[in-house]
């Protein structure tokens, strides 16, 4: 018996006795008990009450390949090779990077990441069955230059998916943070494999906070879907909506380029016309956020004139 089997048995949020769980899963009470310890280690709220047994308070909304596949649009279904649903991985991006040979359309998602990666070497907090962590492999034929602005365009897909889910006021902070009410709701991390000058594969990683446990240690203002509108916090539906928006965008991006998405990005620019600081390591460049150019670079109006910044390892802060 695996931890996942026991978790599915407890996902209904009801009490189950050790004997009942053992019978359901065809194992001894001792085997059940060992797996219950592992569930506690995942940080899930497992209650045990004498005479009643065990339950996971509030139940669990586990990821289901069938539910996700059933909610994909016909366009998306043709382009998605596999939705690989895992219980626990180090990072879905790392798994996807090791599967780039499977070609475009491989999607990896997991209940938990033990080493989730954020931008600029940060970690991405990824507790079990709480949020969405997904990575998509895509192939592009004309090298890195054709991919300028791709990570910004991915942000648009996430905002569009949120609007489909009923959250219509998400915004984008350059280069690719998804904000709601000024707080971070989702993050995007692109990694590239292959030839920067020729055919290359890109892993597009997205982390969306759905129901972050209380007191999560995150070093910036954040929010989650559950706090915005608990009625839309269905992870399988959200995952399908993200893929329905993202996959067609990836399929068209190389032909269209970022210029085709620029206006839409501008409309979602959270800090438009604000005074901002672009952090370049220890150094900060201050200016007015005038928007992005056709390559997705941020254009600041500084005391020394207009200056354009590319994404990479750069970050942005609002001055007031
Ligand atoms: C950021 O710092 O804003 C980017 C966060 C990206 C997190 C996602 S979660 C799925 C994928 N796997 C990872 O390890 N990181 C990305």
Descriptive notes:
The structure is a single chain. With 320 residues, the chain is α+β, with helices and mostly antiparallel strands. Helix content is 31%, strand content 28%. The chain has helices spanning 3-10, 18-25, 29-41, 65-70, 74-79, 92-97, 150-165, 225-229, 235-256, 259-268, and strands at 46-49, 53-56, 82-89, 106-113, 132-140, 171-173, 177-180, 183-194, 200-208, 275-280, 283-292, 298-302, 305-309, 315-318. Strands 3-4-5-9-8-7-6 form a seven-stranded mixed sheet. A hairpin with a 5-residue loop joins strand 8 and strand 9. Helix 7 packs across helix 10. The chain is globular and about 75 Å long. The structure holds biotin. Residues 91-93, 113, 116-119, 122, 124, 133-135, 177, 187-189, 205-207 line the site of biotin.
Q: What structural category arises from helix and sheet content?
A: alpha+beta
Strand order, sheet with most strands? 3-4-5-9-8-7-6
The termini sit apart by 54 Å
Order of helices and strands: HHHEEHHEHEEHEEEEHHHEEEEE
What ligands can be seen in this structure? biotin
Q: What percent of the residues sit in helical stretches (DSSP H or I)? A: 25-40%
Extended strand count: 14
What form results from the Cα inertia axes?
globular
Low-pLDDT segments, ≥5 res: none
Whole-number radius of gyration? Answer: 21 Å
Q: Can you give the mean pLDDT?
A: 93
Sheet with most strands: 7 strands, mixed
Question: Strand percentage, roughly?
Answer: 25-35%
- Please count the helical segments: 10
């Amino acid at each position: 018996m695996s931890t996942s089997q026991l978790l599915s048995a407890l996902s209904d949020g009801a009490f189950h006795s050790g004997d009942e769980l053992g019978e359901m899963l065809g194992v001894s009470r001792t085997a059940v008990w060992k797996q219950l310890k592992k569930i506690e280690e995942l940080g899930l709220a497992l209650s045990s009450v004498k005479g009643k047994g065990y339950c996971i308070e509030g139940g669990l909304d586990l990821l289901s390949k069938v539910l996700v596949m059933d909610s994909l649009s016909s366009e998306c279904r043709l382009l998605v090779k596999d939705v690989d649903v895992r219980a626990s991985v180090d990072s879905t991006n790392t798994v996807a990077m090791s599967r780039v040979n499977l070609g475009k359309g491989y999607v990896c998602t997991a209940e938990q990441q033990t080493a989730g990666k954020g931008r600029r070497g940060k970690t991405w907090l990824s507790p079990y069955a709480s949020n969405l962590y997904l990575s998509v492999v895509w192939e592009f034929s004309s090298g890195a230059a054709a991919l300028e602005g791709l990570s910004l365009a991915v942000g648009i897909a996430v905002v569009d998916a949120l609007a489909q889910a009923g959250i219509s006021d998400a915004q984008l902070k350059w280069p690719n943070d998804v904000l709601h009410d000024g707080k971070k709701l989702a993050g995007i991390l692109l990694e590239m494999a292959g030839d920067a000058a020729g055919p290359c594969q890109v892993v597009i990683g997205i982390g969306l906070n759905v129901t972050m446990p209380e007191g999560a240690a995150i070093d910036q203002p954040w929010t989650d879907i559950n706090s915005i509108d608990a009625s839309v916090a269905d992870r399988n539906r959200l995952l399908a909506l993200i893929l329905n928006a993202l996959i067609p965008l990836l399929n068209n991006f190389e032909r269209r380029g970022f210029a085709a998405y620029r206006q839409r990005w501008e409309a979602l620019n959270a800090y438009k016309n604000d005074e901002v600081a672009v952090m370049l390591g220890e150094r900060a460049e201050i200016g007015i956020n005038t928007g992005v150019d056709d390559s997705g670079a941020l254009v600041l109006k500084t005391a020394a004139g207009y200056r354009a910044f590319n994404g990479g390892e750069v970050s942005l802060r609002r001055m007031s």
